[in-house]
Design goal:
Layout: E1 2-4, E2 9-14, H1 23-38, E3 43-48, E4 64-68, H2 74-92, E5 96-99, H3 105-115, E6 119-123, H4 134-141, E7 145-148, H5 151-160, E8 168-170, H6 187-192, E9 201-205, H7 217-230, E10 235-239, H8 245-254, E11 261-265, H9 269-278, E12 281-284, H10 293-300, E13 305-308, H11 313-316, E14 324-326, H12 331-343, H13 354-365, H14 367-381, E15 385-387
Parallel strand pairs: 2-3, 2-5, 3-4, 5-6, 6-7, 7-8, 9-10, 9-12, 10-11, 12-13, 13-14
Antiparallel strand pairs: 1-15
């Protein structure tokens, strides 16, 4: 049983959760759902920097209020959002503030200095590397708890910042097992891309951003000629949109691989499971991924999965137990590993047992496990939530 202080109130500070679905946004939405369903009697005030409204069909918990800043002009949004956060907290006096983006931690620090309200912050990936701003460094040092999505993120923070190791806990990413399941290759996608069911297909799901070219899709393209020597019909599909697409198109043309690579662009969330089931291997040999929810989604569809061995993919693939880990800078290693996986000779039998692979990722990273871990953290590190026997 859980005892709560009377009229417990939490303030949750998120970039957004409705109008954009990046990794931080997905994590934020799962965090909110986990808190609401575990502690339904708590009053939640959710502050969203970039959203304007929630979807009309959203089922909102009675004790949850959303506050939007997305209608403010972009030039005024950051100071306006910060002022709203601090003013609302001074007025409502929440028991705890949780911010899902490190940049909001500075406002939480000043709020704590003014009112004594404790705050937790969440560290995901690139936003946590090489922090130079003294104000943010101080705010992190004074945080009551920092949740890292992976041991990789935690270790990088400890290496670069003057933090107490006891200040950090790990709360990994999660996913919805009901949205991602094992199916046959979708006929409509085979027809759309003029592919044969027996054709080996490599898939990457990733935002095509110039700032995020470390995701590894370029290295897979470089590896394709070598892969094609062993598997002449192999096809590579990249799902995602972004400002790196023109450069990537030129990169593909220069290597005369236009017939072997498909840039699928943006796809609706409803089609994502179909794309995972279309492929024979999911591959994203990234270098600076904080965790990588897409690995979990692919695994839940029973797909062999490849990630880089230098970032949060190590956590997502459980040190290689759930997939293959390669040097993301080694094109030969990427090519040979993908050939092995597609030929069925990679030395990890679990990767060829779709149902067992799916169950393994659910057991480690499913939403129920996420909630269980969150409860443990709340009970251990917050005076608001006190565990007792009935």
């Amino acid at each position: 049983m859980l005892a709560l202080a009377n009229q417990t109130r939490l303030h949750l500070w998120f970039p957004n959760i409705f109008e954009f679905k990046g990794g931080i946004q997905v994590y934020s939405a799962f965090l909110l759902e986990a808190l609401q369903t575990t502690y339904p009697q708590v009053q939640y005030d959710v502050f969203l920097k970039h959203d304007n409204r929630c979807p009309s069909d959203l089922s909102v918990f009675s004790h949850t209020n959303f506050h939007y800043s997305g209608s403010l002009p972009l030039s005024l949004r950051t100071p306006g959002f910060a002022a709203q956060l601090i003013a609302s907290a001074i007025w409502q006096r929440p028991n705890l503030v949780i911010t899902s983006h490190l940049n909001f931690t500075v406002a939480a620090y000043w709020l704590k200095r003014l009112t004594g309200i404790p705050y937790w912050s969440i560290a995901h990936g690139v936003e946590a590397w090489n922090i130079q701003r003294p104000a943010l460094q101080t705010a992190l040092q004074q945080a009551d708890r920092i949740l890292a999505v992976s041991s990789y993120t935690r270790d990088r923070l400890l290496k670069k910042q003057n933090l107490d190791p006891n200040q950090l806990s790990i709360l990994p990413n999660t996913f919805d097992p009901h949205r991602f399941e094992i199916r046959h290759k979708p006929t409509h996608l085979l027809k759309r891309y003029q592919l044969k069911p027996e054709q080996p297909i490599i898939l990457t799901v990733n935002r095509l951003s110039r700032r995020e070219s470390y995701k590894g899709y370029e290295k897979i393209i470089e590896a394709l000629p070598q892969i094609r020597q062993a598997l002449p019909q192999v096809h590579y599909i990249i799902v995602g949109k972004g400002d790196d697409r023109p450069r990537l198109e030129q990169f593909i043309r220069e290597r005369q691989l236009k017939d072997w690579v498909t840039l699928a662009g943006f796809i609706p969330d409803a089609e994502l499971c179909d794309y995972y089931n279309l492929c024979d291997v999911f591959a994203m040999p990234s270098k600076l991924e904080g965790f990588g929810i897409v690995y979990l989604e692919a695994l839940a569809c029973g797909k062999p999965t490849l990630g880089g061995n230098q970032d949060g993919a190590i956590d997502a693939l459980c040190q290689g137990e759930l997939g293959a880990l390669v040097d993301p800078d080694d094109v030969d290693a990427i090519a040979q590993t993908l050939i092995q996986i597609l030929q069925g000779t990679y030395p990890n039998p679990l990767m060829y047992q779709p149902e067992a692979l799916r169950q393994a990722v659910i057991d480690r990273f499913g939403f129920d496990r996420f909630k269980q871990k969150l409860v443990e953290l709340m009970q251990s590190h917050s005076a608001i939530f006190i565990s007792h026997k009935s």
